[in-house]
Amino acid sequence: MDPAAASADGGVFLEFVDYAIRMLSSSFGGDGDDSPGAGPAPARPPWGWAVAQVLKSCCAYSSGVTAAILLSDLFQSWTEQRKSLTAKRKVELTNLLKTRNRRRRLPNTITIDSIHEKNFLSPKSVLEAVVIDVFVIPGTNIYMLTLGDTWSMSTIDLYLHRRYYNYIGQHGVLKKGREVMLTGCCLRTAMEGSGHARILPTEYMVMLLDEDEDEDAMLLAAQFCTYSFSSMMLDENRNTISYSFYARIEKIESLEPFGSTERKQIVLVDNDDAKIKFVLWGEQVLLANLFSVGSMLALDRPFIANCVHNNHEESQELCLEYGSATQVYLVPIAQQEEQVLLTPTQIRSQGSRPSCVPSDHMASQVSLSRDLHGSVDFSKYPFRVYVSDLHDKMVGVSLFGTVTSVCKASVSGASFYLEIEDATEVVLMKLNFIGLWYQFCTYATI
């Protein structure tokens, strides 16, 4: 090799290292509060560290490497380096997640910690996360999101799909603190590049809105309350209008494949009780993993088409599809509780069963969690039976009914008789308190 050429190549390499250090320093040179990993960590990476990381990335990409790839890897490595030197990011994540509303995890939900542990991410997996930071990779126009979740101590970065770039900005919806759900993800494993796992861009992401937040409520009122399904169906110029709809998810079901293409439909009901089908095709069916019956769906600019029947023929019935410009927001159903009022004891006498009227017995309430359909949720309880199904030596069962009578079974007050009535029959139950009734649990015999 010509010594002069080698010297020139060395000069270009050193110039790039200096350029990369300047870019990283400027990225972390703000006030610290909005920068990833802000805290006592140094803002300028050491020269030797930068050289080592550039060489490592060059070796990882044997088929060739660009300046953007090198800057991306350097930025990720330096971000992780700073995270290890400060605990502020973890404190910030914990405080931010404490303000989030608790919801039931979706069936395919995984945690960020499990992604790092297994170094694997299935496209069918669901990630329920909160945006910790939004930033641009130095020297590029590529947006990244730093995501965290309620169940993990670590975070992970996501290359943002360009269909969401318009939702970033000073008053954008996609910003720090926003909850998102995403699926159809692929992992750039830790064996490549910077040595830190990242999620590659996915177009199957929904942003969660909270109707109790003023900003989100104003967005819903301003953008999604103008049109209804009925008005769209009657409008002859519907193909030239950018519609936005707000409706409740009534049903999620699979359709027969169109040839070899998988299909799913989500039945939506708007405030006027008009219904329409939101049809997903091919890989889009993954989006249905993010939805739950009872939640509210805000659809921005859906594609309007004619429904295709199982015989592959179009009908006059209109449906909505997930087009290239469509954006989806979700107002998830909250994990509600049903208040069950226990009324004052009523006089009741059946055969040898004791009855009593404790005048000092005050009405009370018991909170029972509800499922996504609004019914009482028994998923956290043992197997539920009805009174008519009870027989000797049954264990691990759960009864749900109305307490119709309560009285003491002993002078000490350590046990009580309860009459419980459900839709089938009435049963007498003896409650035995272990220790003081307000301090300890009980066991019951029927």
Automatic annotation (TrEMBL):
InterPro entries: Cdc24_OB1 (IPR035201), Cdc24_OB2 (IPR035200)
Domain Cell division control protein 24 OB: 13-141, 146-272
One Pfam family per UniProt: CDC24_OB2
Source taxon at top rank: Eukaryota
Coiled-coil features, chain-numbered ranges: none
Transmembrane intervals: none
Protein name as annotated: Cell division control protein 24 OB domain-containing protein
